[in-house]
Amino acid sequence: MSTAAETHRPAGMTRQAWLALLVLVPAPSIGVLLAMPDGAGTLGKVIYAAMKAWILVLPILWMLSVNGRLAWPAWSWKGTGVGLLWGVGVAAAILAGFFAFGPQLVDVQQVRAKAMETGLADPRLFIPFFVYLCLVNSLLEEYVWRWFVYGRCRDIMPRAPGWAPVVLSAGLFTIHHAVALSMQMAWLPALLGSTGVMVGGIIWGGLYRRYGRIWPCWISHVIADVAVAVVAWRLIHGG
Predict the structure, then answer these.
(1) Which of 2, 7, 4, 14 lies closest to 66, judged by CA?
(2) Domains of the chain by residue range
(3) How many CB atoms lie within 10 A of CB 79?
(4) Taking Cα atoms as reference points, which of 116, 105, 38, 93 lies closest to residue 230?
(5) Average pLDDT, the chain
(6) Distance in angstroms (rounded) separating the CA atoms of residues 197 and 46
(7) How many CB atoms lie within 10 A of CB 117?
């Protein structure tokens, strides 16, 4: 439910929120488009890294501009049990979908060739990469897409139903994932994967809306990413 403060935001804050979304949301997709094509050069990789850095720095600049100080939410157990349950449910859906339909939808040879190219076929790189993905990248995504982007979506639509910013922020979260998936696989698995990302974004946005902290979202996200890591291991290493 929206509070009076939420439904009567200053017009300046709404304009700032629009500007923040316009300069942040396209950044990861631009990085993916320039860095992921075969033969992407050093410039593409540098731009990709710059875009990743930008989406982390912008929320800090926003916080300093609006609040005048940096603040990080203290750890709280509130909602972590619910986040854990949602994470288990999402992970179970990912694994069930993969084992039921994955072999028919995914070109395993293409995945393994890409893994050889990137080095992920080597377990010495695969394991630390997915540890980072599950524990660190998921936290950064919650910080950017739930705390910051969801908050700005709420700012630009203060009179909308409470679920509207959840769905909008989930859609924005999905864009760069959809771009990346479409560049790596056929349209159907890319569509299914993007749909899964959208559903995850709605779940995590709903958790953030309910509890006001990223920790339940992060716990759920970690468990979902562990399932993604299991799928990737099966595809690349076959075990």
Answers:
(1) 14
(2) 4-237
(3) 20
(4) 93
(5) 91
(6) 26
(7) 10
Residue 4 has pLDDT above 50, yes or no: no
**Residue 196 identity (one-letter amino acid):** G
Q: Which two tokens stand for residue 164?
A: 């509207």
- Round to whole Å and give the CA distance between 31 and 180: 10
> What is the SS3 assignment for 67-95?
HCCCCCCCCCCCCHHHHHHHHHHHHHHHH
- Specify the range with the lowest mean pLDDT, choosing from 5-9, 24-28, 144-148: 5-9
Nearest Cα residue to 175 out of 44, 28, 35? 28
Q: Is 30 helix (H, G, I), strand (E, B) or coil?
A: helix
End-to-end alpha-carbon separation of the chain, Å? 47
Higher pLDDT, 72 or 228: 228
| Alpha carbon distance 57, 63 (integer Å) | 10
Q: pTM of this prediction?
A: 0.91
Does 222 have pLDDT greater than 80? yes
User: How many CA atoms does the CB half-sphere of 154 hold within 13 Å?
Assistant: 21
Rounded to whole angstroms, the Cα distance separating 70 from 41 reads 36
More confident residue, 10 or 45: 45
Contact of 21 with 144, CB cutoff 8 Å: no
Taking residues 1-6, report their average pLDDT.
36
